[in-house]
Write a structure and sequence with these properties.
This protein has 468 residues and is of the alpha/beta class. Helices cover 49% and strands 19% of the residues. It contains 16 helices and 15 strands. The strands form three sheets. Strands 1, 2, 3, 4, 5, 8, 9 and 10 form an eight-stranded mixed beta sheet that branches. Helix 3 runs parallel beside helix 4 and helix 10 runs parallel beside helix 14. The longest helix has 31 residues. The chain is elongated.
């Protein structure tokens, strides 16, 4: 190969590299000119599931390096605590968050919309009516309204003020008037030329534009992104909820959490009343797993909080089976179990509650309280029904047991004396003539080793009283 051929080859190679470089530069320029918009659909009741949607969507948008986040919203409202967490996440998002109100942004939906940088509404849509109501639709007490007023007001204030210069005069005007935001909650707020006392404020799209609570009316997401935000070219990526997101949202519903606490209490109680290991204990274990697992995955329940619950159960078991009477161990066990349930619902860091809102604390208290009250009532009620009459009469073996060959033998024990083999609270075990029997006390609490007398037999159990 002569020198001319070599130079020719080098020239071709250099041209090839230059071409590749220009292609890559062109692709990079195209990507730079194309904005990435991440869309999150919230077209349902505001609850823990929609809270998970938003949280996951915001995280994924940050990972993808999105330029903007667009929430497509249509909701009549929902849980206040979920809405509070969502509006906080939006306010502190490093990526600008915009909202497109497709039809409704009522109550909790209004709070979430107020947190977004810009609000866009479809013609015919509405925003407002943020009064806190109960399950029946009635207004909650003023302390709840006060908290909602504060959140609406502070959310509006977070967007700051516009500076208006008119000649030598400089004035400042709220971008979103906090008093108007408060009027969406409190019907006592009066704003001249807008709302009279006795009415809760709700804006139409046109009214929201006029009063600064809507930045534009649009009929599509494309119109918002091109006309109002100003993207010439954009790529739209949407958040797709997974089945696990929906499951976690369901499991973290306060009502379902209260039911799980009820099952745990009832399962443990009835397991202690029956010999061996059976269905009640299995139900309690499954309920405990369903209660703590989503909280642990979400980072709410820490290892030590779950450990409190486990240690509490151990202390209660020791009090029942080992330690006579009911004292420090039993009371401590109950306190630790309650603390485990309660603290697992709060986003505290090593017992530091600075970031925990009063709403979260109230929700956790109410969830645990309802669970324990319902659990206690259910245990008392079911204890009086199982095996006799009422709800469980068809599954109890009352009639059959009376006709078995063992019934006459046990019936013959009536009047015989024995000793309490375990503590009876009121259920336990007794020994009669060297044989062990399931027994129920008719004299209240009976210590282990106390002399007892059998007074009757029913449902495969002997009923005993203390020998005076």
């Amino acid at each position: 190969m002569n020198k001319y051929s070599t130079l020719h080859l080098i020239y071709i190679v250099l041209l090839s590299f230059a071409g590749l470089f220009l292609v890559q530069l062109s692709d990079a320029q195209v990507k730079k000119d194309t904005s990435l918009v991440y869309r999150i659909d919230i077209k349902k009741e505001i609850d823990h599931t929609s809270q998970i949607y938003l949280s996951r969507g915001l995280n994924e948008a940050r990972q993808l390096g999105a330029d903007a986040i667009l929430i497509h919203l249509n909701t009549y409202g929902g849980l206040l605590e979920a809405a509070d967490s969502m509006r906080t996440a939006i306010l502190y998002s490093p990526i600008p968050v915009y909202v497109f109100i497709d039809n409704n942004a009522a109550s909790a939906g209004a709070l979430i919309s107020l947190a977004c940088r810009k609000i866009y509404m479809r013609k015919g849509a509405s925003i407002g009516a943020a009064t806190v109501v109960d399950q029946t639709g009635g207004s909650m007490p003023d302390k709840y309204q006060s908290y909602m007023r504060s959140m609406m007001r502070s959310t509006a204030e977070a967007h700051g003020k516009d500076t208006i210069i008119n000649g030598k005069d400089t004035t400042y005007r709220w971008i979103r008037d906090p008093q108007i935001a408060e009027a969406m909650v409190d019907d006592r707020v009066v704003i001249p030329n807008l709302i009279d006392s006795g009415k809760t404020l709700t804006f139409t799209a046109e009214e929201a534009v006029k009063w600064g609570f809507c930045d534009g009316i649009a009929e599509s997401e494309d119109e918002i992104l091109t006309k109002y935000i100003g993207y010439k070219e954009y790529e739209l990526t949407s958040y797709s909820p997974s089945w696990s997101d929906n499951l976690k949202g369901f499991l973290m519903n306060p009502i379902f959490q209260s039911i799980l606490i009820l099952i745990i209490i009832g399962g443990i109680y009835f397991e202690l009343q029956t010999p061996g290991v059976g269905f009640p204990l299995a139900a309690a274990i499954v309920a405990a797993i369903l209660y703590f697992s989503p909280l642990y995955i979400e980072g709410l329940a820490q290892n030590w909080e779950i450990l409190l619950f486990v240690v509490g159960l151990i202390l209660i078991a020791l009090e029942i089976f080992v330690i006579p009477g009911f004292g420090i161990a039993g009371v401590s066990g109950i306190i630790l179990v309650v603390a485990g349930f309660f603290l697992s619902l709060l986003d505290n860091v090593n017992f530091n509650f600075e970031g925990v809102s009063t709403t979260d604390t109230g929700r956790a208290t109410l969830t645990v309280l309802i669970g324990f009250v319902l659990g206690t009532v259910s245990v008392v009620w079911l204890s009086s029904k199982i095996g006799t009459t009422g709800l469980f009469r068809r599954v109890a073996l009352v009639a059959d047991l009376e006709n078995t060959t063992s019934s006459p033998v046990l019936t013959d024990l009536i009047g015989k004396e024995g000793v309490a083999y375990t503590v009876l609270r009121p259920s336990g075990k007794v020994t009669i003539e060297g044989e062990l029997y399931d027994a129920v006390s008719e004299s209240g609490y009976i210590e282990k080793g106390t002399a007892v007398r059998i007074v009757r037999f029913e449902n495969a159990q002997v009923y005993v009283e203390i020998i005076n």
